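Sharing a chain and its predicted structure for anyone who wants a worked example. Both blocks are below, sequence first, tokens second.
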Amino acid sequence: MAVRYDGGEGGGEDGSAARTPDELDSLLVVSGAVACNRSSFSSSSVRRVAGAPWSVSPGHDGCVSPPYVVELNQFTVPIYGYVSPLFVLLTIVTNCLVCLVLVRRNMRSPTNTILVAMAISDTLTGALPIPCFVYFYALRHHDDYVLYEWCFAYHCLTDYVPTIFHTASIWLTVALAAQRYVYVRRSTVGKRLCTIANIVKVVVAVYLCAVASQLCRFAEYQYFPVPVRVDHQRGIVAAGVSEEAAVAVYRNACQYDFSPLIYRYQHLYFNLYYWFRVVFIHLVPCAALVMLNSALILMMRSAQKRRGALLLHSTAAAGAGAGAPTTGVGCGGDCAARAIESNTTTLMLVIVVGVTLLVELPLAFLLIVNITENTFDVELLDQGTSYSASLFLNMFTLISYPLNFFIYCGMSHQFRRTFRGLFERESPTGAANHRQTDPQKYQSIAAPPPPGAKNARVVGSCAASDTLL
């Protein structure tokens, strides 16, 4: 989820994007050695330091990597330690409610299948990093080195796996917009192709492609245990006891370096991976969402004009008297109501897609800036600004996740009714009577107009509707 162009560190020489030079000097202390700088894959600069609370072996190019410390600046602790867990908790609650509502028998539809998959992806994207964020930032362990046993898991939970689910969520949003476009534009084709079974296949394919796009990340680094003196790590020595006299307690911190294959082709690898990522995980889906959203808005406006013309025709026919021809008008009220419901559904999905674009486009822009800097060795944003921007963009992404629940509640009568039903007890007889007296509210696909109705094309969008919510 985080924008980390260097493959896991935040841009500083020890992986802490915004530490001061004095803090870096106290961290990068390797006796007579050269510390590796991984702030950019295109940079070959190294840094000489002295002094030593740990002993390590040099990497591929003879330089030494210090034990790994998490990223940190003045915004990291409040955002990752307090704001993120709060909104992730809200996301878990709201998305669980969304799933409980949408998997109900009367709510099952192709569109709702995609919405359930999106809710699961968004929840996992936000929830997976939270254990690490709570431990390091909320519990104030950000000055500790990451333990060797947790180093690989830390990268997986905070970067690799969330990126998989975030990628899946983006492409599922594209599938949602495309499916709705087909339903509105070509109702017959939509009902034939966009079945629940076919949508499940699409969801599985999206997840498989998302996993495949990130598999290489799991082989980027190799990890080594580094014995570290706890008193140096914490900077705490008992009162009245000199540092030399303090009893040394060692823990295995984490040192990591590029795997041999990645090290040999690191410039080529990072260029290929990140340009692939910005094109196929950000630019292409965002461009598709902009075009599909625009097309849906235009079709909604066109449907409103056709519905207005139909109402005028119906009013004129009704005023002409009982003997006037009324072909196709008999279903006018019912079809008009379903057309309004279909347009409301489309508008709701347009808003959901719009919220996604609102947070994805700035992320794509920041990633493009970082890639451009590293590819062409230019500085467009200083490291502190870039890291702070990624923090806030990640926070806005988390804030957007629970919004879908409130959009559904605000714009879908059927969603609200089914949601209330989760907390209401209704007798079987009462439920059966309710279904008999109001059957349209329990249909997931609106009924087509009578055969031969002349105005069938005018209100055809309601007949096409997969009335999702």
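Comments welcome. Residues 75 and 388 are 7 Å apart (CA to CA).
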